[in-house]
Amino acid sequence: MDLRAGETATLVLQLGRIPPGLEADLQHWGDVLARADNRLTLRLAPGRRPADLARWIVGQGLDLEAMIPQRLSLEEMFLQIVGMEMG
After folding, report:
1. What is the pLDDT of residues 9-66, one digit of tens each?
2. Alpha-carbon torsion 65, 60, 27, 80, what sign?
3. Is 1 contained in some domain?
4. pTM for the complete prediction?
5. Structural domain for 22, as ranges
6. Of 7, 2, 14, whose CA–CA distance to 45 is shortest?
7. 6 pLDDT exceeds 50?
8. Strands annotated E in 1-87
9. Looking at residue 34, which CATH number applies to its domain?
């Protein structure tokens, strides 16, 4: 998944387990939007790449079972584009 400058991605991370403190550690990567069982939904911060996040998760000794990109709604796309033009 390639992102252009200023773009963000929303990902669902399926992990073997979610250890204590992981959600706080992920704040360096973006915003944790939701947690359900062993799944976290994360909106990556601008400039962060999914591949780098995957390497970091595996480097922490965690099992990354799936990383599923979420499609943006039309409203989210509009706000992202307008935000890029205004910023």
Report:
1. 899 999 999 999 999 999 999 999 999 999 999 999 988 999 999 999 999 999 999 9
2. negative
3. no
4. 0.75
5. 10-86
6. 7
7. no
8. 10-15, 30-36, 39-44, 64-70
9. 3.30.70
